[in-house]
Amino acid sequence: MADPSFPDLTSPIDILVSEVGPRDGLQNVKAVMPIEARKAWISAEAAAGVREIEVGSFVPAKLLPQLEGTAEVVAHARTIPGLTVAVLVPNARGARDAIAAGAQKITLPLSVSETHSLRNLRRTHEQVIAEAAEIAAAIAALPAGERPHFEGSLSTAFGCTLEGAIPDAQILRLAEALMAAGCDEVGLADTSGYADPVSVRRLIGLLRGAVGEAAVQGIHLHNTRGLGLANVLAALDAGLTTVDSSLGGLGGCPFAPGASGNIVTEDLVFMLEAMGLRTGIDIGRLSAVRSILAQHLPGEPLYGFLPDAGVPLGFQPAGARKTEAA
Amino acid sequence: MADPSFPDLTSPIDILVSEVGPRDGLQNVKAVMPIEARKAWISAEAAAGVREIEVGSFVPAKLLPQLEGTAEVVAHARTIPGLTVAVLVPNARGARDAIAAGAQKITLPLSVSETHSLRNLRRTHEQVIAEAAEIAAAIAALPAGERPHFEGSLSTAFGCTLEGAIPDAQILRLAEALMAAGCDEVGLADTSGYADPVSVRRLIGLLRGAVGEAAVQGIHLHNTRGLGLANVLAALDAGLTTVDSSLGGLGGCPFAPGASGNIVTEDLVFMLEAMGLRTGIDIGRLSAVRSILAQHLPGEPLYGFLPDAGVPLGFQPAGARKTEAA
């Protein structure tokens, strides 16, 4: 029997909004949010209709005390019917923990800037590719039906604060290497907030040309220079259907100096629904989830325009329009 | 001989960024900026390469003390070689003052929401169209070569905080009436910040279909719900070549409750130049102009991401790229 607390998270949508706040957001704030609050946050977003949430990261608690107890958070998130429970892992060891915890989607970042890779993950490209192969082998050893989806995330794809622009050939070579190592999918990540609509369209086209359209569905964009939603629009034009964002714009990348600011989930959902693209998410319920962040991360700035401005008078989200038409 | 203080404001560009801060921005702040500071602001933006500036509005000083002395500001701006000096007028009386002062572009707003029109301009649609005809006649009476460009601005085109959505047919009828009254151009204005990329593309297409492409070149978008630059991208896709914005995002519309926030010129110029579209504007010099606002409008929030984040490492603006290629 369906759990009445959650909407049907399997009904048709047009664009998948993948919430990364409980990982990318919490990782980048100093305050430590209690585990129970992290669970409440995830439940509240799922209750608003969010279908995929990156709930944490399997890194040593010594390095990121904010994400301690991710296994417990994953276990909680797995009780929510229809929710895809995603996690970030820095290496094969983290991936084994993620698999043991029951994560359904595992993302391994590979910074296409090797300088950034060494500073962020303390690994060369070759070492990260080797970790990817080890993760893929661990997943392949699982029974069919229990294998998490495995994504390689191409960090600093639109340029690096340490190296500047990264050559296309290097990005594509690394993407191909990740796919050859056994990733199901690769995604571009604008870690430094350097992307613009033209570079987004161009690089998606190149990447899809290299590894195939099916292997490139999502993108992780930042709003560092205010171009976040314009870049999303470019990504949609290029055919992508999954967009990462963070409630209240929490998070960013602490290893790229000057770069911060995820796309705000509330504003993203508003844009998509206004454009007639169904997200399955209720904007009002989503905005209400900010109160959990405000309560447990006191003093932390929450971004976003929609929560202040509200929806336009007479606004009809895409979901409502399509339901009426049906 | 060319004035060495200003770049060549007549060299080729791809997109015209029309700065509205000295009118739309100042109109919506409580503080009164001294006339000399307004002149310095305009000069500094022109020195950064801005080619069109709405320098003020011809309204009674009793109503808008912030814009008192616009004639003097126009006279100053007219001394800058190559700058297009634009003003807003609420009626024919204001237009006569604008013509006498030497304005080169005159914009008359017509709110497509009649409720908003009555509250904002205290005039029915019919009365505004009559004012437009009177302005056009006054312009036509001038010698050829001295006639300012005359634009009708369709306020609340993407919806009104008082009436909600406005029927397409009503918008197009009013646009046609403005053109029939003698406007050279009509533009859509998202007074309430209700636009989204789909509605922007759609309405530009409808409007160009109704009055012709040549009569629809520019757009005035707000960033009330964070979609400002995404909407600009949609407008560019639809073929427009002129975009209004305000330094520091100053301004908005005080008669539409809850609606505020122009597009930030600094972020807009960064997006365009990053996309390879020449604006003729130097981002560094432009961002430096914020100090004039900070000094003379103490406590007034200045928006924008680019001034804090800076340009990407190794950033090449479109202008530099094309100069090298040439």
From TrEMBL, chains A, B:
Gene3D superfamilies linked to this entry: Aldolase class I
Segments forming a coiled coil: none
InterPro entries: Aldolase_TIM, HMGL, PYR_CT
Pfam families per the UniProt record, alphabetical: HMGL-like
Residue ranges annotated for the Pyruvate carboxyltransferase domain, each copy included: 15-287
Keyword field: Lyase, Metal-binding
Similarity comment: family membership: Belongs to the HMG-CoA lyase family.
Protein name: Hydroxymethylglutaryl-CoA lyase
